[in-house]
## 1
Amino acid sequence: MEWIYLSPHFDDVALSCGGLLWEQVQAGEGASVWTICAGEVPTGELSPFAKSLHERWESGHGAAALRRVEDRRSCQLLGAEGRDFDIPDCIYRRDPGSGTHLYASEAALFGELHPGEEPLVTQLGEALAGVIPAGTQVVAPLAVGGHVDHRLVHEAAKNLGGTVWYYADYPYIEYAGQEEWVRLAQREHVDLAVSNSGLQAWISSIAAHTSQVSTFWPDLEAMAVAVGAYHSRVGGVRLFRR
C-alpha cells in the first residue's frame, strides 16, 4: 500500500503522524511526505512579523532552505520520501493587487483564508489530483486550530477523489482542549498502533526540525514528554475518514 501525507509546512506530518509513518515503512508499505508551503522566501521586504519568525528560527532569508534540510533529515529517520511544492508559506504571501502582506500577525495566521486565495485552493486541488497515483491512500490535515496554511491544504484535499484520510493537527489539537477531541471522536475513525520504537522514531523526526521546536516547547525533553503523552491517548495515531 502506498501512502501520501500532505504537510502544510515542513514539520506538520512529523509532528502529527511521524510514528505512524515509521510503522508503515517498517511493514513494507510506501510513505511519502508532500510539503505544500515549501516555496522559497520571496525577494523584497518582508513583514515585521515574518522577520521576527526568522529571528526565532535563526534562519534569516534562507528559512525555506534551512527547513528543507531539516525535513530531509526527518524523512530519512522515518524512511519516508519527501516532495516539495512551490507555494510560499503564508507569512510571505501578498495580495496580488495591493501588494500588502496577507498574514502579517499571529492572529492572522489563525483566521480565515483571505478571499483572494480562493483560486489558490482550486489550483492546489487540481495540481494534487494530477499527480497523485490512483489507489494511493492520501492523508491530509483536519486543520484543527485553524492555521491558514492547514486550511488551504484541507480545502484542497476535500475535492480529491479516492481514499482520503485526515489527521488531527498536533500540537494544535492539544491546545483546542478535550471538548474538541471528544467532538472529533464522534467522526468515523481508525486508531493505528505505534510501538515504543515507533514513538522514539516519532520524537526523533520532530527533533530533526531543530528550528521549529521552540515554537511549541522550551526544549527537546519537554517535547519528548508531550509527544509521549499524546501517543498514550490511543496508543498511536488516530486517522479520520472524509
Note: The CA atoms of residues 40 and 64 lie 5 Å apart.
## 2
Amino acid sequence: MITLSNVYKSFGSNHVLRGVDLTIRQGTSMVVIGGSGTGKSILLKSVLGLVTPDSGTITLEDLDVTHGDRDAFLARFGMLFQGGALFDSLPVWQNVAFRLQRGRGKLPGTEAREIAIEKLRRVGLTPDVADKFPAELSGGMQKRVGLARAIAAEPEIIFFDEPTTGLDPIMSGVINDLIREIVVEMGVTAMTITHDMTSVRAIADNVAMLHDGVIKWTGPIADMDASGDPYLDQFIHGRATGPIEAVR
C-alpha cells in the first residue's frame, strides 16, 4: 500500500531522514517507534506529501505521493492528531463532519450531522455530546472526537500521531482498544507513530524502529521481543545504557 525507498530529508545541516526504507502492506497496522527527535513526524509528513523528500521515493499503490491530484490523494487518508487539533469555535458534530461539509463531495448539514453522530457512537460517545464544544470535554473525550473525525469519511488509510499522549493509563487503554477495533472493522491500512510501548503492543501488526534517520529493525510484533537488535531492545525495555545515547 505504502512504500518508502531510500528516503532522505534534511533541513540545513540537520539530517533527519538518512535513507529510510519501509513497506506498509494493505490492511495492516504499522507502528513506527523511536525516541523524540528521531524523525517520526517528518516521516509521517513525507508520506502525506506535506514535506518533500530531498531524494528517494514514496509511493501509494505505486503512485508517487508528490505528484497527481492532491485533493483526491488526501481524501484517501484519515488523521488522528497528537493534540486532538479540534476547532474550538465549532461544536463537536461539525468537528467530526469537517471534511464531509467541504470539498467535492460536500454533504448537506442534516446528513453530515447524522454521520457525525453515528461516528461518535462508534467511539463510545452519546449523541448529546454532538452539540457541546471541545472545551467542555475531557482530554479523553476530545481524543475520541478526533478519532471519530478521522473515520468520518471512511478513509482507506489512517495515521495516528502519538494517539495516547496526555491520557491516563485507563483512557490510553480505551483509545488503544478503539483504534484496534476500528482498524480491523474497517479493514484500513494504519500507520502510527508513538513511543508508548503499551500502544505498540495493543495496536501493531508490524513494528519499525526509527533511529538516527534510518529504520534499524522492522518486523511482526510477535518477533519484537526476540529481535536481537540492540537499538530496539534498549528502546522497548527503556534501558539507559546501550547504543542509543540518552540526551542530558
Note: The radius of gyration is 18 Å.
